[in-house]
Amino acid sequence: MATTSDLSNGIVLRRNNELWRVVEWQHVSPGNWRAFVRVRMKNLRNGKVIEERLRAGEEIDIVRMEYRSAQYLYRDGSTFLFMENESYEQVEVPEELMKDAVLYLRENDNANLVFSDDQLLDIELPTFVTLAVTSTITAVRGDTATNVEKPATLETGASITVPAFVKEGDVIKIDTRTGKYLERVK
Questions:
Q1: Could you read off the pLDDT of 21-41 as tens digits, one per residue?
Q2: What's this model's pTM, rounded to 2 decimal places?
């Protein structure tokens, strides 16, 4: 059994029959009090983030995760079809697991399918994606003096805010973790 000394960001723990991904952890030893570990965890099922204190040296249950690279094929109603890149098996992913991945995923894009005990738990997108801007308003002359942002719709249907100089047809780079504009791609 693992202990709190084995913690690291990104590992998955089983606590109270739920799977939690460690977002952040910190070992704290406050003066003459007992040391403890402060852990921020995200629930893999519903996305809820909690903060919990664990005793230093407490036993924890680390879950082994398997990441399989897959290509997104198409959407069929409320399910999304992926093809694993190594075995060419098709995997049906329910809409509940897709969460925000729908906003940044195009057909033929790659993503990681996250499994535990052959049960699909999550979809991991690449950290950065490049998408084309399909519609946005034109910037007004004089608005470029400051950091003015405007709404834009991407080819996947996602709406984000972009700087005033971005035009329709531009290809931009987006951080899938935050949904923020990063840069224009040439």
A1: 999 999 999 888 899 999 999
A2: 0.74
